[in-house]
């Protein structure tokens, strides 16, 4: 089964407090997006990569040379719009779609290959880790309604991996219904597609704040030391 | 209303991979526990501090000189046992109990005073922040059951602040029922006591891993620069 990767990289970097979007910032001397795209480019299971950008020109300049990058296209208003735009570009079916945040450059090859192999069996999968914090659900008035058993609560990461047909169907239905999901998988969940948790890693962080970059550099340094 | 702080500091530091428990490690030159206890000691609303330790002798040596530290006592098997042990020591009623992790030294005075003032109105409060990740609930077989609306999901921190009577009653009932809660507040929730979310901060982190220390140092550095 062929795999197309969709990498939404249209973030504006507002939370970093600077002008440069996070995916363009250097991480140990190399832009975040380059690290992310290289991993997918080097993965033997991945056939093509569609990068969905805010700034198409700068993005193409940065990662257009990777041989598997088939398209660098303009993103939409919401992340979901960008993923949907990417989905229009993927190659002929049957096909597995692997959506991964541009700003999660610490994903490992082992984990990527693992979740792609598991896609032979499951039509929808998300990487996720058990939450470290105690989670509480609360009403808008700020009163706690529930403290769910921690063993049932997961923090979701990417990749999220889907068979193309149920994914496309779920996105079309979401557009028809005017629904914006918290993540891609939630759109399949509302169609009744079983979504499987694939074990992620606490190192597979999303780079959002300056502190996240500090942590990422420390993790990379540790990996380089072996 | 008088306030007693209970600071569970009995952690063994297993997750740090080293022999020294996290509360004893230096953070910008000063042990974590010293920073935490100093904040409570300097808070005009706090009357007394009970520190519940794993290693009573080392702990007392480190923070016993703060004038408001009334007791340094031996902790129990679970965090809940330690808090309960601390609760036996607090001064006469009526009283507010403020439980705070030893390894959350970045709590600010403003936030501490804010939640203590709000305790005049609410008998149970927890500091919490909206979750940044998408959270999913899953069954033991790893299939997602729910992606709760993010606006209803909070990651809990400390302080957790309670009126002494409902707190003591909830702990006694938990012991009688053999229940170990994920946090103190969950014990009051199961008694039907309304628990209020008090807005925490993403800077009020719990120091668990070496990376957490990096982040904490960066935050402190930024605060010192103003």
Care to describe what's here?
Chain A is of the alpha/beta class and 226 residues long. Chain A has one domain (2-225): Spore Coat Polysaccharide Biosynthesis Protein SpsA, Chain A. The first copy, chain A, has helices at residues 32-42, 56-63, 79-89, 109-118, 164-177, 184-189, 210-225, and strands at 2-9, 26-27, 30-31, 48-53, 69-74, 95-99, 124-130, 135-138, 144-146, 153-163, 196-199. In chain A, strands 5-4-1-6-10-7-11 form a seven-stranded mixed sheet, with helices on both faces. In chain A, strands 2-3 form a two-stranded antiparallel sheet. The longest helix of chain A has 16 residues, at 210-225. The model of chain A has no long low-confidence stretch (mean pLDDT 94). At the A-B interface, strand 8, strand 9, strand 10, helix 6 and helix 7 of A face strand 8, strand 9, strand 10, helix 6 and helix 7 of B.
Keywords summarizing the entry:
homodimer; alpha/beta; Spore Coat Polysaccharide Biosynthesis Protein SpsA, Chain A; 7 helices; 11 strands; 26% strand
Task: Summarize the helices and strands and which ones pair or pack.
The structure is a homodimer of 226-residue chains.
Chain A: E1 2-9, E2 26-27, E3 30-31, H1 32-42, E4 48-53, H2 56-63, E5 69-74, H3 79-89, E6 95-99, H4 109-118, E7 124-130, E8 135-138, E9 144-146, E10 153-163, H5 164-177, H6 184-189, E11 196-199, H7 210-225
Parallel strand pairs in A: 1-4, 1-6, 4-5, 7-11
Antiparallel strand pairs in A: 2-3, 6-10, 7-10, 8-9
């Amino acid at each position: 089964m062929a795999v197309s990767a969709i990498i939404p990289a249209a973030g504006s970097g507002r939370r970093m407090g600077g002008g440069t979007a996070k995916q363009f910032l250097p991480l140990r001397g190399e832009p975040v997006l380059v690290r992310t795209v290289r991993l997918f480019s080097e993965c033997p299971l991945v056939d093509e990569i569609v990068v969905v950008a805010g700034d198409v020109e700068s993005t193409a300049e940065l990662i257009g040379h990777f041989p598997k990058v088939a398209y660098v296209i303009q993103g939409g208003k919401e992340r979901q719009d960008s993923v949907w735009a990417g989905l229009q570009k993927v190659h002929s079916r049957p096909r597995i779609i692997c959506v991964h945040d541009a700003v999660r450059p610490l994903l490992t090859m082992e984990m990527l290959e693992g979740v792609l192999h598991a896609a032979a069996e499951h039509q929808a999968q998300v990487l996720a880790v058990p939450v470290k914090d105690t989670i509480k659900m609360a009403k808008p008035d700020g009163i706690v309604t529930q403290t769910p058993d921690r063993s049932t609560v997961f923090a979701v990461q990417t990749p999220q991996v889907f068979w193309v047909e149920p994914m496309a169907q779920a996105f079309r239905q979401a557009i028809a219904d005017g629904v914006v999901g918290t993540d891609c998988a939630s759109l399949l969940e509302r169609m009744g597609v079983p979504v499987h948790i694939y074990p992620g890693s606490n190192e597979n962080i999303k780079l959002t704040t300056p502190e996240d970059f500090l942590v990422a550099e420390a993790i990379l340094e540790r990996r380089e030391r072996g």
